[in-house]
Design brief:
alpha+beta, Alpha-D-Glucose-1,6-Bisphosphate, Chain A, domain 4, ten-stranded mixed β-sheet, 5 helices, 10 strands, START domain-containing protein, START_lipid-bd_dom, lipid binding
Length: 220
């Protein structure tokens, strides 16, 4: 019971941290898993796999620059995200593209999980729509002894400005955590965790460090 409790909390934040290319699969119908406080979580099975893809839709009181600053803040992932044992920048190409490593602490006897993510921001200045894509990039960091490498991570944020201080977010992702975690457990937690993460995100975005930041690719 204790191990399952900790695994649940691990997934709440792990799935948010490992940020977001849309998964190219034949489309199955979305199933609504949770609808509470303006946050809707959907899931569907990936074609040819026992794993699920998840979609979250919500609106937040925040600006695009706040969100970009939050997602780009690798140095504070260990402070802001539950059970992050290690997180560091691997390579920064520009403000709109970087690679980072993340390792999430698991509960014994389950091994820690780690991966390298390529993050890319793409802003459509005409429609004021921001897309944040994430893909695992294992070739950029060596395998760490005792840590299970995540074999699959695809994700996509689609963020639309409602007005200057409010955002509409669609967030899709699919993940295979690798190792010996049962598929039923992964699928059960994958639909629950994102709700908890998005519930706390709006408060995190109000931190002073994320205010009044500027990014050239967001400018009109």
């Amino acid at each position: 019971m204790l191990e399952n409790w900790n695994l649940t909390h691990y997934f709440y934040f792990f799935l948010l941290l490992l940020p977001f290319t849309s998964v190219s699969q034949e489309q199955n119908e979305w199933k609504l898993e949770k609808d509470k406080n303006g946050i809707r979580v959907y899931s569907r099975h990936l074609t040819g796999s026992k794993l699920k893809e998840v979609k979250v839709t919500c609106e937040l009181n925040a600006t695009l620059s706040q969100l970009v600053a939050f997602v780009s803040d690798i140095d504070h992932y260990k402070d802001a995200v539950y059970r992050v044992a290690d997180a560091y920048l691997v390579k920064r190409i520009s403000d709109r593209e970087f690679y980072y490593y993340s390792e999430t602490e698991m509960v014994w006897p389950v091994s820690n999980r780690g991966l390298v993510i390529r993050m890319e921001f793409d802003m459509n200045r005409t429609t004021r729509t921001l897309r944040i894509r994430g893909n695992n990039a294992p070739e950029l960091a060596p395998q760490k002894k005792g840590v299970v490498r995540i074999p699959l991570w695809h994700s996509l944020w689609t963020v639309q400005e409602i007005d200057s201080k409010r955002l509409r977010i669609d967030y899709n992702f699919a993940v295979d955590p690798g190792g010996e975690l049962p598929i039923w457990l992964v699928n059960a937690l994958i639909a629950v965790g994102p709700y908890q993460s998005f519930s706390s995100m709006e408060k995190l975005l109000t931190r002073p460090y994320y205010q009044n930041r500027t990014f050239s690719f967001l400018q009109p």
